[in-house]
Amino acid sequence: MRRNLSHIAAMAFNEPLLLEPAYARVFFCALGKEMGAGSLAVPQQAVQLDADGMQLAVTDYMAGGQRPAKSYQVKNGIAILPVSGTLVHKLGTLRPYSGMTGYDGLTARLQMAVNDPDVRGILLDIDSPGGQAAGAFDCADMIYRLREQKPVWALCNDMACSAAMLLAAACTRRLVTQTAKIGSIGVMMAHTSYEKQLAQEGVDITLIYSGQHKVDGNSIQALPAGVRADFQRRIDEARRMFVDKVSLYTGLSSEAVMNTEAAVYDGQAGIDAGLADQLINAADAVEVMVSAINKEINREVNMSQTNVSIIEAVAQENQRVMEILNCQEAKGREQLAQMLAGQPGMTVEQAKAFLAAVPAASVANTGDQIMALPEAKGREQLAQMLAGQPGMTVEQAKAFLAAAPAASTAGTGDQIMALPEAKGREQLAQALAEQPGMTVDQAKTLLAAAPVAGSVSVGGQIMALPEAKGREQLAQALTEQPGMTVAQAKTLLAAVPAASQPSQETLFDRFMAQHAASAVSGGGTAGRGEEDLLMSMP
Which residue stretches belong to region Disordered (predicted)? Predict the structure, then answer.
């Protein structure tokens, strides 16, 4: 049914209006729809709407175009939520009313502010002595939870005591003014008895009840000792909960909070006690919070950039290591390449130069490389023979092996003869290969235990050098040096003068020479010289 809108039309048409263009379009769409208009034209904006377009414009505006009124003030992106007067469980209003603030209204406003895209942080402007315990802990837990989504600060302006202290403790940060009062972390309960007054006035009230504790704490009787003890237990438990919550929210120890003994602290003393973080002028609270948020954003950006730099550095280091380990020069020098890759600051080019200067044979034995060739598989006997050939290179052995047919299955005798332990023990190996039932493992053990025919160790060769005579101690030390060759030892021994004290062998030779058959037949004696010679022998 069409309504009579002539009075609105009279004010809307042919009269100057101060309307924002987008809203004006919606307004005239709604008004035109009510008046039966089928279209709307805005020539300056080249807009032409039919009836459906007009309806859509109105619907869109009603659905999302209108912003609900905020229940808090927003200044520089900070939502300011007043918390004043007595704190009660369910006040039923969003804002403080009649000297009270409801936990229900405060929680609702907090959730609105957290979801508000215009709000960067929330400031609780607190001026309250506390209030009900009922609802206080749930409200504080909600503040503690929401502060993970947006910063929630508390301004003690000028009182945050008891339940208000609980709410402030749950905030990210607590600001206090010079004259602020903060603390009172304790619990109290009051009981009123009208028993004497009623008796004076001649009023007798009889309580009829079922259940031992049904009328505990009634006001027409004095408080019994048992009921008082029960009440004391309840408030002690409530205090413990209060202390534990403050400890959780602030990071203070429960012992430190308990030791405040519900004291109230002024301004700086509250900071010294750990209950507040910063002393400010209340007028500067918003700017202080905005500055802190901006610094935190910058820190997170810098941290993010630092993390990116670290990730890039790790990637570069991994690339450096892999390039050193996988370069062509590392082939046959894997152990040295790994050591170079582990050196901080070692570049790929430097590592390549080091590796190229070291012969591959010093890192990996040629014989081992030949035996490890894929072509050696099935041709182990030939590979073993090639590995023992002086001057045989890996590439030459590879070509020989590739050209030879692989043995399908080598006989036990052939395997025994091909063992590394058979080298220098060929005669024994042949005998073992001919023994019925002899296994390769048994032959290997026996060969390893037998001395190599005609072989002399490097140490033995050094000790047998003519240059070692008179220099036995030095020669022994040289045999124990890893990598020492016979030629090197010979040069070193020749460069060292022989010991001035004759060796035992030399003295013995001299003694025997003087007592040879020719000397005896001549009838000569050594006399005093002989005695001296004998005395000088060790």
Answer: 519-538
